[in-house]
Amino acid sequence: MRKDMNKEKFNRIKDSVDQLKETYKGKTQDDLIDEVKKIRANMSDAEFRRQIAAMNRIRGFLTESQQKKLDRLIEMLEKN
Fold first, then answer.
1. Is 52 inside a domain boundary?
2. Which domain of life is it from (predicted)?
3. I need a labelling partner for 69 at 20 to 30 A (CA). Which of 3, 4, 37, 42 fits?
């Protein structure tokens, strides 16, 4: 991929992340969990499994505390 295309892709992703940060700024952990539950309710099982696989790929970049929170969230979503 050309360097300018990589920069464009990076900028689109950064803009998306910035928008998400602004959307969820000031929300409590419970608010965020409720949002995730709503998103999960609208996903197929296959899509949910793909998302779980993606989250597991970033696990190595998380702190131990973040990993535990992720595990609890995944466990909660799998029960629904």
1. yes
2. Bacteria
3. 42
